[in-house]
Amino acid sequence: MNDYVIHTEALSLSYRGKQALDNLSLRLARGGVHAIVGANGAGKSTLFRVLLGFACADSGSAAVLGCDSRALGPALRARIGFVNEEHTLPTWMRVEELAAMQRRLYPGWSQERYRQVLVNFNVADRQKIAELSRGERAGVSLALALAQGPELLILDEPTLGLDVVAKRAFLDALLQTSLDDGATVVYCSHQMEEIERVADNLVIMERGVLRHMSPPGEFCERVALWIADFPFRQPSSADLSAHLPGVLEMRVIDGLTHLVVFDGGEDFGARLRLMGARSCQSMPVSLDRAVNGFLARGHAGASPLSAAA
Ligand SMILES: Nc1ncnc2c1ncn2[C@@H]1O[C@H](COP(=O)(O)OP(=O)(O)OP(=O)(O)O)[C@@H](O)[C@H]1O
């Protein structure tokens, strides 16, 4: 018996020949906030669909809270909160009717949590869902999901389209749900500053494959920006690839070579000097730059050093 809230083994799914999940083996431990990132089309939403039993994999296995995703019954579904990026809700219902219905359905319902999230949106209880703006609808669906008191919360780009204040309030409530109620949160997002703030675990997917998993800080520590001054001959992208390990991205700015490097090793500076650098220095990068550099390397249409001058 393991304690993974999500466990996939060699999970594959292709849509008419297009590989969305490619032999994906992923184990997410119980507790904390897990953020899944990846370029557009990396397979994040597809993974969620398979996990929740909305789509069938071609091969491999997927389990949520220890149960095969193909056999999730009502009792198990009640332990999982899910918010999709469209924030699908019954448009004909009034906000108060929807909240009352959910309160009856979920024994762990927290009215306080519901109000805590919803207060940041200008939503009147008597309004119909159809009358709400997109952001307000997102606010209602997020308030409902957090108030359900789920054991596992799966969120597909939950803050897309929210303004800064609403986003912050939602993230605070999310953290509190995870800390106070012990809920495990699994969510995908393209917003790194948000992930930096809330995530305990960073999962990077690329074209249906798991590329990296660690705490965000650990990932950042493995990526560095090197700035080197080559006074005579600027090395080409090909030179760099051949002689330096882990170069993700190269740019020449004001005559200085900027390299984003993953696992460059202790002697990276010495290697730069051997290639003719007069001086060089390394500095840390933000999560945004680290992840984007990492993903740019394998991005469709981009060569490994696509940003090279
Ligand atoms: N119903 C479908 N029919 C055909 N192809 C699909 C379908 N759904 C997804 N795909 C393809 O599967 C791949 C993975 O899509 P998915 O929506 O899972 O990516 P994603 O990581 O969630 O992307 P984004 O960040 O853009 O939301 C993409 O190449 C997409 O074009």
UniProtKB/TrEMBL annotation:
Keyword Membrane applies: yes
Keywords (A to Z) from UniProt: ATP-binding, Cell membrane, Membrane, Nucleotide-binding, Transport
Gene3D superfamilies: P-loop containing nucleotide triphosphate hydrolases
Pfam families membership: ABC_tran
GO molecular function: ATP binding
InterPro entries on file: AAA+_ATPase, ABC_transporter-like_ATP-bd, ABC_Transporter_VariousFunc, P-loop_NTPase
ABC transporter domain sequence ranges: 6-232
SMART domains noted in UniProt: AAA
Record's protein name: ABC transporter ATP-binding protein
Organism: Massilia agri
